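Lab notebook, design round three. We kept the backbone fixed and only want residue identities now. Task for the bench partner: fill in a sequence for the structure below.
Input structure tokens:
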């Protein structure tokens, strides 16, 4: 079976992952251009992890890996990414046809080259998505015939991060739906301790995926996943972009929120 699929190492799976995500994002770009809304890519970003993990699972047939571990990895990825895709899909549907401020600003900045710029941005997301599936690939490919303490700890962290991100998203969504809160800054629940608890728990999910793979021969290689996600969530598409938009729309109220509350890691309010 290994010979028939050509799976000499987990890197064989990654090659398939890159082909899938780049093809998927090209199709998503065609859809985005037709509806003139780049925000649709966020939905497929979440969905893409389930698609790739499912393909890895199918390719890693016996005697590759250990079935209970492969099922555990697939379930963790699918539950997390499908919840994320559903949440982003609901947000996209609620605001459609208005385009997300990030992509609208990209179109404005790129001008006549906006279409090609979007394609490049989508394909970069495809490359990043496939690169981040390394923990799934090696966890399914390698491993003994039992769950190690490190893997059990990873599953517990994954569960905490799933609940935390779900609660944070629900609290923010409920806050925004109340018309009395228009123009106000959400500081309820988890948002009282972090300006971006949803991003923090998203990052914690990747810590869990990395930790789960550490029992394998190539596990240490996956340390780049939480590192990359931390950088993107705090410096690129997450905290930075969101806060720039918040300062434009909420002004001094958000500036005060910045002074009193941690940006990423949850902690108590700072004393004035």
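Proposed sequence:
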């Amino acid at each position: 079976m290994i010979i028939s699929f050509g799976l000499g190492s987990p890197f064989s799976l990654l090659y398939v992952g890159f082909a899938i995500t780049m093809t998927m994002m090209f199709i998503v770009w065609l859809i985005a251009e037709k509806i003139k809304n780049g925000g649709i890519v966020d939905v497929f970003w979440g969905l893409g992890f389930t698609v790739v993990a499912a393909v890895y699972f199918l390719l890693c047939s016996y005697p590759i890996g250990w079935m209970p571990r492969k099922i555990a990895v697939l379930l963790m990825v699918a539950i997390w990414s499908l919840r994320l895709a559903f949440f982003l899909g609901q947000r996209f549907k609620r605001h459609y046809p208005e385009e997300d401020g990030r992509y609208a600003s990209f179109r404005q900045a790129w001008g006549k080259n906006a279409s090609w710029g979007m394609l490049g941005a989508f394909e970069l997301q495809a490359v990043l998505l496939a690169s981040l599936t390394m923990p799934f690939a090696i966890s399914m490919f390698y491993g003994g015939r039992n769950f190690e303490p490190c893997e059990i700890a990873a599953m517990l962290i994954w569960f905490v991060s799933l609940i935390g991100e779900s609660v944070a998203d629900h609290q923010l969504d409920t806050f925004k739906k109340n018309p009395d809160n228009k123009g106000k800054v959400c500081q309820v629940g988890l948002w009282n301790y972090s300006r971006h608890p949803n991003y923090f728990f998203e990052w914690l999910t990747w810590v869990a995926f990395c930790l789960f793979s550490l029992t394998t021969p190539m596990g240490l290689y996956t340390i780049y996943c939480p590192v990359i996600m931390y950088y993107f969530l705090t410096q690129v598409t997450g905290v930075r972009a969101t806060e720039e938009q918040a300062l434009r729309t909420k002004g001094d109220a958000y500036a005060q929120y910045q002074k009193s509350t941690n940006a990423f890691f949850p902690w108590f309010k700072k004393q004035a």
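Keep this in mind before ordering anything: The radius of gyration is 20 Å.
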